[in-house]
Amino acid sequence: MRMRKMKNLDSRMEATSAYRIGNPAEYKGAWRSLKKDCTALWVEVGCGKGKFTAETAEANPDVLLIAVERCQEAMVVAMEKAQSMGLKNVFFIDMDVAGIEDIFAFGEMDRLFINFPDPWPRKKNAKRRLTFRTFLDKYCRTVKEGGEIHFKTDNAPLFEFSLEEFAFCGLQVNNLTRNLHENGIVGIMTGYEEKFHAMGTPINRCEVVCKPFDLPKEEKVCTTQEAQM
Hints:
Layout: H1 9-15, E1 40-45, H2 51-59, E2 63-68, H3 72-84, E3 90-93, H4 100-103, E4 109-115, H5 133-142, E5 143-153, H6 156-168, E6 172-177, H7 191-198, E7 204-209, H8 217-220, H9 224-227
Parallel strand pairs: 1-2, 1-4, 2-3, 4-5
Antiparallel strand pairs: 5-7, 6-7
């Protein structure tokens, strides 16, 4: 997410510091200690300004929700939203999702949300798409077997590309739709989603069932640098 630099970013981050996890690697394998009575651990990658994040946490008070966002200007707005709503079951991490295995243990998550990621439309940037096979490999190591990835995008080419990647990895896809809100609003919308739905843009969505899998040898190793090429 591209946002203008905030002159008062540091003070706003400090005011919402109770919601920010500054040392996420220390919680690897122990995230549920943040909410010992939680029934599930959900993670959202690329939470943006946090409309979906806050409303999802509010609607599921028994769930612990961890939101990942590498743009601090967006994340601080999301944290302020959570703070204003008095939420106790959501926390935020500012980092690149390429490092997700560094902070979540094998099979630790129950569900992962990927909402409206950057489509990286140029073919040479395919490895940067968050539904590329090397990212899926990371997700399926950190989401428990049988857990789900919930994916939404307004970008039809990205959706079709993603379906091909899911198939390549042998992942089961459920509840696939290419026009989620055709007959009325379904589920909690992101702020971005609201705008594009109002413009009449169809929203694509599906649920992917996670399982361990092995990529071909040449695809198996993907460094952070390679994922950003």
